[in-house]
Amino acid sequence: MRNHRIRLAGPWEAQLIETDGQPVGEVIRCQLPFTLSESRGAAGVLLNRGFHCPTGIDGTTTLRIVLQVSEMPHTVLINGTNIVECAASLDAEFAFDVTGRLTEFNLLSVLCRSSNHESPATLNIVWLEILGEPTAIIPDVSGSFQ
């Protein structure tokens, strides 16, 4: 299996969060990118999105959730389990290993709190990354590599 990305575009559900961690207001449907300035003065926002587990996954497959976000999220949950400790980052992309953690249907929750009010945090793009076992590159009959 080759590497593959499944974009978790939308719709997402957003819930404003107060400083004590309690939700406030109604749950709203939203699309990415989502900027915390849209949170209207709340301490943060909890963004949720459900998705199905891809088919064809086996023991050699590594799965990661990748967030392209302006600053590290406060909390990232997959099916209620905190996965922030699984993070690896490069520039504004944070990758979370979810290998062996997915079920038939999954809930991804991302809690963002902006530490810089002049430049609020923005969750731009989220995807599920499927990293298969590397495949050998073999030339075809004409000697070309595909």
Percent helix: under 10%
Mean pLDDT: 84
Low-confidence stretches: none
Strand content: over 45%
Q: Which H/E pattern describes the elements?
A: EEEEEEEEEEEE
Structural class: mainly beta
Give the CATH architecture: Sandwich
**Span of the ends, CA to CA:** 15 Å
Report the total helices. Answer: 0
* CATH H level, superfamily name: Galactose-binding domain-like
How does the major sheet shape up?
6 strands, antiparallel
Tally of distinct domains? 1
* Overall body shape: globular
Q: Tell me the CATH topology.
A: Jelly Rolls
Radius of gyration: 18 Å
Per DSSP E runs of 2 or more residues, the count of β-strands stands at 12
CATH class membership: Mainly Beta
What does this structure look like?
It is a single chain. The strands form two sheets. Strands 1, 4, 6, 9, 10 and 12 form a six-stranded antiparallel sheet that branches. The protein has a six-stranded antiparallel sheet with strand order 3-2-5-11-7-8, with no helix packed on it. A hairpin with a 2-residue loop joins β7 and β8. The mean pLDDT is 84. It contains no helices and twelve strands. Helices cover 0% and strands 48% of the residues. It has one domain: Galactose-binding domain-like (Jelly Rolls), CATH 2.60.120. It is an all-beta fold and 146 residues long. It starts with a strand and ends in a 15-residue tail after the last strand. It is globular, with a radius of gyration of 18 Å.
